């Protein structure tokens, strides 16, 4: 055994180590903060290495800054809590609806972590498909919710992914029909979602079909990327360029909120009708206040649950060696107006 150092040397050694440890600790804490700031995932899952044999399901959504997806996450977490003996859940979301690369990375991270299933609301209908193909090749069950994956790209990648979600075109047409039946004028504008998203394309078609049937003219149709601030800017420009606009059809409620602000800034509150899609709580209040005419409820609190249940069904079929394939599942979408809110 080596002799102990003299007390003075020992004190110097200890102080030096303490200072170094303190600097390392600060750096580690800073690094942890930076890493945590770049992810928006939460987990109720446990590792299989810990002896857990329940299936692990990863829910991958779009922006949690959008109330629709935060509601979706809460619904999924409540379902897992009620069925904790059946499966574990990992919840993920991106910060920006347009951050497709981050969502691709989340798919890869979930596959690497060993999840059994991925339930995904893709930010882009095409770009996510190759990553999901790799997930399927790794043995992961994949279920598509909210925004349908592109059929042509799925065929190119030689995979089939079941879609669990509403008929967005039919839902948007219902909202458009209600606007047409209660219209104040003939000229309208549309705020589209991200144009590469299938649900944005379908809602646009639904709005267009309703306006065509009613003989109403669409004088402007532009994308506002699903975002409230962007919608405010785009709608303000529309109203300035086309003062004859009597209504704005927004492909989601966040954009409808942006349209409300634009209409107010233009001094046309009460003149320009607004409809949306999603039925978030802020829009319910706006409908009651007369600022929004109608929206579509695709039951965001249950949409992920429908997808999770489909994934669990497929996993159960695989374990029982029966037919493991599942078909598309159409989920409900309902018209929400001041009258339906009163009934609720």
TrEMBL record:
<dbReference type="GO" id="GO:0030288">
    <property type="term" value="C:outer membrane-bounded periplasmic space"/>
</dbReference>
<comment type="similarity">
    <text>Belongs to the bacterial solute-binding protein 2 family.</text>
</comment>
<dbReference type="InterPro" id="IPR050555">
    <property type="entry name" value="Bact_Solute-Bind_Prot2"/>
</dbReference>
<dbReference type="InterPro" id="IPR025997">
    <property type="entry name" value="SBP_2_dom"/>
</dbReference>
<protein>
    <submittedName>
        <fullName>LacI family transcriptional regulator</fullName>
    </submittedName>
</protein>
<feature type="domain" description="Periplasmic binding protein">
    <location>
        <begin position="57"/>
        <end position="316"/>
    </location>
</feature>
<dbReference type="InterPro" id="IPR028082">
    <property type="entry name" value="Peripla_BP_I"/>
</dbReference>
<dbReference type="Pfam" id="PF13407">
    <property type="entry name" value="Peripla_BP_4"/>
</dbReference>
<dbReference type="GO" id="GO:0030246">
    <property type="term" value="F:carbohydrate binding"/>
</dbReference>
